[in-house]
Design a protein that fits this description.
This protein is about 35% helix and about 20% strand. It is an alpha/beta fold. The N and C termini lie far apart (about 40 Å).
Length: about 250
């Protein structure tokens, strides 16, 4: 990574680590640098102000719209696997479900049991391939392919979804906030998410804890439109309280 003269050597090293891992944690940075936690928080605050990262609970993640799926897949992997396992346990024999594109929804597909008696509708090519290997009945909606996320979007995809009814859906999100609800960085994917929710009996959002309190450009659901969040941690007290008021159940691994 090219050195930025506005930032110091430690801050540059933080950016270099993020370029490799996609995220940093303050606890790990303390082990690397001989500075206080407050100094590291100020470093992250400065880098966020410069638009180079986005602070999260206990660290920071890369900033970037429509980050390619292959770049997101390794970020928070343990957490996403745990979320995928929890979500898959909610699927019942005979269900018709929808899985949208994303690194966390991909983990849901990986934890579905082979030859399970369900029908899965998806707009994600990588999820379809995973389900094919498991011999699970799968419907892939058509549409315009987004290279970075391997998802199919647009009027053809929307037209197919509009003719369906789902027992439960599992959707990813870029963030959830009190004012903005659930949001996404891509307007085409947000449109699909919005439509899927309209045709679902039960709406599940699968997301790791770094998405709490964040918002992106395109809102696709108000808080009360979602039945359940499946995550690896609970949100802060304020957001937790607002979600409970909106009757959103939060499921995390014990």
């Amino acid at each position: 990574m090219t050195h930025n003269p506005i930032i110091n050597q430690r801050q540059q090293q933080i950016l270099d680590r993020m370029a490799l891992d996609g995220e940093v944690k303050i606890a790990e940075l303390k082990d690397t640098f001989d500075v206080t936690e407050m100094t590291l928080r100020r470093d992250l605050e400065k880098l966020e102000f410069m638009g180079l990262l986005r602070r999260t609970f206990g660290g920071a993640i890369l900033v970037g719209k429509d980050i390619a799926l292959q770049d997101r897949t390794g970020i928070m992997m343990d957490e996403k696997m745990s979320i995928g396992q929890l979500a898959a346990q909610l699927v019942k024999s005979g269900d018709s479900i929808f899985l949208d594109g994303g690194s966390t929804t991909l983990q849901v597909s990986k934890y579905l049991k082979s030859e399970m008696s369900i029908t899965v509708v998806t707009n994600a090519l990588n999820i379809a391939a995973e389900l094919q290997a498991k011999q699970i009945s799968t419907i892939v909606v058509g549409g315009m392919l987004l290279d970075k996320t391997s998802t199919l979007v647009g009027p053809i995809a929307a037209g197919s979804i509009a003719q369906m009814a789902f027992d439960r859906v599992f959707i990813g999100t870029t963030g959830v906030s009190i004012k903005h609800g659930f949001s996404n960085s891509n307007m085409h994917e947000a449109e699909i998410k919005r439509l899927v929710i309209e045709h679902a009996s039960e709406v599940n959002i699968v997301m790791d804890h770094t998405k709490y309190g964040l918002k992106d450009l395109f809102s696709f659901a108000a808080l009360e439109a979602v039945d359940r969040i499946i995550s690896d941690r609970l949100p802060d007290l304020e957001l937790d309280g607002i979600l409970k008021e909106a009757s959103v159940q939060i499921v995390v691994k014990n």
